[in-house]
Structures are given as structure tokens and as C-alpha cells.
UniProtKB/TrEMBL annotation:
<keyword id="KW-0274">FAD</keyword>
<keyword id="KW-0560">Oxidoreductase</keyword>
<feature type="domain" description="FAD/NAD(P)-binding">
    <location>
        <begin position="7"/>
        <end position="297"/>
    </location>
</feature>
<dbReference type="GO" id="GO:0050660">
    <property type="term" value="F:flavin adenine dinucleotide binding"/>
</dbReference>
<dbReference type="InterPro" id="IPR036188">
    <property type="entry name" value="FAD/NAD-bd_sf"/>
</dbReference>
<dbReference type="GO" id="GO:0005737">
    <property type="term" value="C:cytoplasm"/>
</dbReference>
<protein>
    <recommendedName>
        <fullName>FAD/NAD(P)-binding domain-containing protein</fullName>
    </recommendedName>
</protein>
<dbReference type="Pfam" id="PF07992">
    <property type="entry name" value="Pyr_redox_2"/>
</dbReference>
<keyword id="KW-0285">Flavoprotein</keyword>
<dbReference type="InterPro" id="IPR023753">
    <property type="entry name" value="FAD/NAD-binding_dom"/>
</dbReference>
<comment type="similarity">
    <text>Belongs to the FAD-dependent oxidoreductase family.</text>
</comment>
<dbReference type="GO" id="GO:0004174">
    <property type="term" value="F:electron-transferring-flavoprotein dehydrogenase activity"/>
</dbReference>
Amino acid sequence: MSGPKAKVVILGGGPAGVHLAQLLHKVANVTLVDRKNYYEINWATVRAHVQPDLADEIFIPYAGIPGIGTFVQAEVASVHADCVLLDRAMTMNLSKTSFPIGRQSNDDRLPYDFLAICTGGSYPSTLHQAGVATSIADRKAGIQAGNRALQNAGSVLIVGAGPAGVETAAEIAKAVPGKLVTLVGAHSSVLGNAQGTPPALAQHVEWWLRKHGVKVILDERADKVVDGAHITDKGTNLHADVVYTCSGSKPNTKFMEKEFAACLNEKRRIKVDSHLRVVGSASANIFAVGDCNDVPETKLGFLAREQAKVVATSIKTMLKQPQGVTIAPRLEVYVPYSGNPKVLIISLGRKHGAMHVGNVVVTHMLPRIKSKHLFIGHTRKQLGLDKREGMFACGRAPTVNE
Ligand SMILES: Cc1cc2nc3c(=O)[nH]c(=O)nc-3n(C[C@H](O)[C@H](O)[C@H](O)COP(=O)(O)OP(=O)(O)OC[C@H]3O[C@@H](n4cnc5c(N)ncnc54)[C@H](O)[C@@H]3O)c2cc1C
């Protein structure tokens, strides 16, 4: 392609979208869209709930992240063959104290040459669901309110015993002792949903939780709420002052349903080929990256970034293709992660953690590092920020539209 720079529109500013934007902003006209005005290091949100001052480090305004092109705060309403339609009103309704962070733009139609859908997934619980607060001020206020509710609670129920539920239970049991913490999961072991988890890791994690006073109920699906009580499919009645729903993470792909419904699988994930291009779309220039796609691997931020690298290289190759050449360019292939050690590291409070290397459970080194710092400094550095303060460390500031 020659002439004016190609328009690359990236939907979703999580690990996948931001990394992709940073890799492409020098070679293309990049626009990054997110419904909120801040990046969230979402695996650290649970700890911010028990330690609210952490919020300043893990909620980072997009305006402060270098090299992401033009940022637009808006809800993606629908995706079309040549453009994306935005719904700003929805964003404003969601955010009571949304504030302008840059030049205003009223254009609700974003045409694109390349589209990357990086909209991830959401949990029903506000603990992990960044999308419910679209301004950083609302998000921090929500964390403070959540912390007060937790401090005042006598009992806490966590529904879902996958990695998110387990880490939530562990964090609360260690940081806010004295609460009656119950973890209920539908599988016969904790972490039951995480791909390739060996029994030894699940057993170790369950042992740790019970040792720290967490009541673990397995093989029961808490699928009904009657008069505020959660009832399991086996009839157990679970009452608690505070409930966190950590099950049922759903891909954020509703905006695909209008014109691209055929591109979604039965779990509403976006079907992709080995180049992470959307399967079933007429265009070869539409990619889906990270948690929203159907790549068969554990959904992790680290892997979302790896996928972004592959797509960035392919888009760069396509951009270099001289006009008029009809031979398809050779695109990068993404190989789903199957390495060892597995990248799933479970933090169990601040001082303990576990991962597995083959069938051996490892509780020192990486797990300890994750549990202590939750890779916050590392993630901030990857974003091009100072490890501690949300100031520029390198690169140029983005143009920001709201
Ligand atoms: C408790 C917990 C612990 C975890 N631990 C780890 C870990 O230790 N290591 C690790 O690597 N990963 C971990 N993960 C997983 C990791 O957080 C995800 O894999 C990663 O965030 C996925 O990145 P993504 O960019 O694909 O999507 P997301 O991070 O989900 O980002 C998607 C973005 O799209 C935006 N968006 C969605 N829909 C719309 C719309 N319609 N309009 C506008 N914007 C929209 C959202 O606001 C969001 O900013 C953990 C997750 C949780 C919940």
C-alpha cells in the first residue's frame, strides 16, 4: 500500500489491543477504541479491593500510555465490512462522572483498512468487570465502596472456583481475616476449567485454601438466586453479606451479531484461522486477537500480547505489498501455546503462589514473584510507563479523542 497511511482500527484497549497499537502506530494511522478511558491491570484488581491505594498503579489513563495512536472513548455498537459504528451515549450513561480528556470528536463512524477486534471477555462480578465504570474516577470510587462493603461483611461467597475465583478467595482470606469465606465451584476440583491443569496443582491450591479457613464446596453449580440466597443444583442454600461471581466469563462480541453473527462459535467467541483472521468474513483484513477469539489455549494476558505480535507482523507485511500485486502475502502463523512450564500461575495471597512444571507443583520463584507484585511494575514497563508513577517513560503521547 502506498499514499496516505492505512487506517488501522483496534477495538478494545486491553493487553492485546494496546500492544498491537504500540507495534503499529509508526507505520499506520492507528485508532484505538475502548468504552473506558483507562487501562486496567485486571489480574491485580482483586488485590486493589483489599488494598485500595493500589488503584493508582493499576488503573492507567490511556492518555498517559505512549504510542497508541488516536484514542477514542466509545462503546462499539456494531462492526461492518468497511467501518465500525460507535455508541458514545452508552458510554456516557455508564459513566456518571465521565470527563473529557482531550479533543472532542463527534464522528461515530470509523472507516478502516484493517480492523483488529481485541475486546476480550467479562465476568459478571464488578470485581473483575472493568467495563461497568467507564471513567477512572468511577472505577476508583467503586473499588473504595467495594472495600468498605468487604470490611463490614461477616461472610463472603465466591461463586466459581476457576483461577479468578480461587485468587479472589485466597486474597480475601489472607488480607481480611475473620470473615467466613465460601468458595463454590461446579467442577470436581478447583481450577477445573483451566485447560491442562494437573490434579497435583488443583490439590495443592485446595489444600492451601482450606488451611486458610476457606470453605470449599465442589461439584455444585450455584445457578439460582432466591431472596438474596444462592442455591446450588444440589439444593445447598448459600447466604453471604458480599457475593463475587467469578464464573461465566463471556467474550465481549455482542457488536458482531448484526453483520458477523456467522463468525461466532457456540460460546460467542470469534472464529479465527491460523493467522488470527476472522473466519467467515468477506474481508481478509479483519483480525480477532486475545480473549475474544476461539484459539484453543488458556486465555491469558501474556498470550494476548503474543497474538498481537503475530497480527502486527502480518499487517506490516500486508502494508508493504505493492499495489496491483495479486499474490497473497505470506502471513505469520500463530501457534497456540502448549509449552511447559504452563503459564498459569495462581497467586494465593501476597506470600504464596503455585504453578506447575509438568506434573510437579512449584511454589517458589515465579509464583512468589507474581503473588508479591502481581507483575504490576513489569506490566507498566511493557506499556512504556515508569514502574511506579503513571508518567511517560518513553515514546510520544497519544492524540486523545473522547
Ligand atoms: C483474576 C484474574 C487473574 C488473571 N491472572 C492472569 C495472570 O496471572 N497472567 C496473565 O497473563 N493473565 C491473567 N489473567 C487473564 C488476562 O487478564 C486476560 O487474558 C487479558 O486481560 C486478555 O486481554 P485482552 O486484551 O484479550 O482482553 P481484555 O483485557 O478483556 O480487554 C478488552 C478491552 O476491550 C474493551 N471492550 C470490550 N467490549 C467493548 C465494546 N463493546 N466497546 C468498547 N470497548 C470494549 C474493554 O473495556 C477492555 O478494555 C487473569 C484474569 C483475571 C480475571
